[in-house]
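Predicting holo structure, zinc ion bound.
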Amino acid sequence: MTDELLARLRRFNKDYFPQYEARFRDLVEQGQHPSTLFIGCSDSRIVPYMLTGAGPGELFLVRNVAAFVPPYDGTLEDRGCDAEDHRGCQHLEAGGGDRQWVGHHGTAAAIEYAVLALEVKHIIVCGHSHCGGIRALYGDVPAEARNLKAWLDMGREAALPVQPTPEALRRTEERSVVLQLERLMDYPMVRSRVEQGKLSLHGWHYVIEDGEVHVFDVQQGRFVPASTAEHSGTGPYRDLRDAERDTGALFNEIDDAWAPPR
Ligand SMILES: [Zn+2]
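Done. Tokens:
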């Protein structure tokens, strides 16, 4: 019986790795310094390295169903602590007041790590056409998939009160990207760096069948094909490869017309 995966592992080691050995060794010795956090849908048709032309060490990747960003404080719940004085209470030390941290949001942890430790200059949120996660917002999820059901709640604000026509799905996919950008701005370490011009946000919708990313332009209030877009960023864009050079620019808030209904 052929073990296809094992064959591929051997091929990587024998054929591919030698071409990049020096690069990988450098990345081990110097550590990783990726400039970009890429938050993308898990869909197998999105290949971030192909899309961006990136190589080893350049993208810090987070992928999940539908490329959602969990709310920054979404893991705080009422603790119901009955201590008269809260001296020494862990929930207060964790900054949660009378609430405590619950849950394990890998995506939220990755955002914090990428911004605080890796000091990325760009965060991309990449949705795409024909997204099964977005389509699932309009249908039923099997009861057994309770984690998936809870996860999809993070996209419900983007859904429209209409039948899921191709146009409605496309619009929902785009609205979801905008929603996730708004959630990103609720992360204090993201907001402060964006406002200081040290970090830029990029809302992308990848149209698989066209092989083209459409970039959300907050000033135009729409997604613009990369072939005609002025830049790859969502707000006023500067090349942040040398962020220390200038700290004047501000990120524009997402236009109300594009904000999902509350
Ligand atoms: Zn998807």
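Residues 41, 43, 66, 128, 131-133 surround zinc ion (CB under 6 Å).
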